[in-house]
Design goal:
The complex is a heterodimer. By secondary structure, chain A is mainly α. In chain A, 75% of the residues lie in helices and 0% in strands. Chain A folds into two domains: 81 residues, Four Helix Bundle (Hemerythrin (Met), subunit A); 38 residues. Chain A starts with a helix and ends with a helix. Chain B is mainly alpha-helical. Chain B is 79% helix and 0% strand. The longest helix of chain B has 31 residues. Chain B starts with a helix and ends in a 13-residue tail after the last helix. Classes of the chains: A mainly alpha, B mainly alpha.
């Protein structure tokens, strides 16, 4: 358990710092790279929580596909590369206040409710086979709905972005 | 490991996402902050799935990832369309609906 706590501390520290740097950096490409660090750290935490299939999907879909899409978006919209002051709007103190207050409420509620709950040392581990079984039996209707949603999003993105 | 560790990390990520959505001007940065918020939700799902020994949490985390991918596709298409029509993706310039 000690080793797990050490790894959690290392990964969570990296994820937290990267997340804060991501929303404060003045270079948009750096922000995208910090987002990659956050996503990779979260994948490591999923493995720590014995969710191997979700961790793999996180790597494939987020770091592999979504981030490439973001980098293309940054390049195609000719966002100002390099440092510039214009990335944060004038209302940032208000935004910071909203975020801090919201965080305080959530953290208070979480500690109040789950203060000393330990995660089990010998949890039920769900292998990829169990996740697949569950998707194609219990959750088959939501799964089909997600496939239709992905198809609709694909067609919608093409219709929106093509030049007439 | 305590449940609280993971939930507080999720809350921190969600707050970073809120700050990014409210304080950033670039539309692509706002989409990236939304991704941060969706990931904060995912880590909560996985933590509770681990706590209760339920595989449904992992399945729904996968659904969230799929929906996030669809959202990014459509969102970036809209951002590109805005850029093509107005040559700017600064959200403060998009005030056509202002009365």
């Amino acid at each position: 358990m000690v080793a797990q706590n050490i790894f959690f501390g290392l990964i969570a520290g990296g994820v937290g710092i990267s997340a804060i740097k991501m929303v404060t950096t003045r270079n948009i490409v750096h922000a995208a790279l910090y987002l990659v660090a956050v996503l990779a750290g979260l994948a490591a935490l999923y493995i720590l929580l014995t969710a191997e299939f979700v961790a793999t999907t996180q790597f494939l879909v987020y770091i592999g596909a979504v981030m490439v899409l973001f980098l293309f978006g940054i390049m195609l919209t000719r966002a100002p590369m390099g440092h510039r002051d214009g990335l944060t709007s004038k209302q940032w103190p208000m935004a910071l206040m909203v975020a801090v207050l919201f965080g305080a409420v959530i953290v208070y509620a979480v500690i109040e409710q789950f203060g000393a709950d330990e995660l089990s040392e010998n949890p039920t581990v769900f292998r990829s086979a169990d996740v697949g079984d569950s998707i194609f039996s219990t959750y088959v209707v939501p799964f089909e709905a997600v496939s239709v949603l992905l198809l609709a999003a694909l067609i919608g993105a093409i219709v929106l972005a093509r030049k007439d | 490991m305590l449940v609280t560790q993971f939930l507080v990390l999720g809350a921190l990520l969600f707050c970073c996402g809120i700050y990014g959505v409210l304080a950033r001007r670039n539309a692509v940065m706002i989409l990236m902050s939304i991704e941060l918020m969706l990931n904060a939700v995912n880590i909560n799902l996985i933590t509770f799935g681990h706590l209760h020994g339920d595989v449904g949490a992992q399945v729904f985390a996968l659904f969230v990832i799929a929906v996030a991918a669809a959202e990014v596709g459509v969102g970036l298409a809209i951002v590109l369309l805005i850029y093509r029509n107005r040559s700017s993706i600064n959200v403060e310039d998009l005030d056509l609906m202002r009365g």
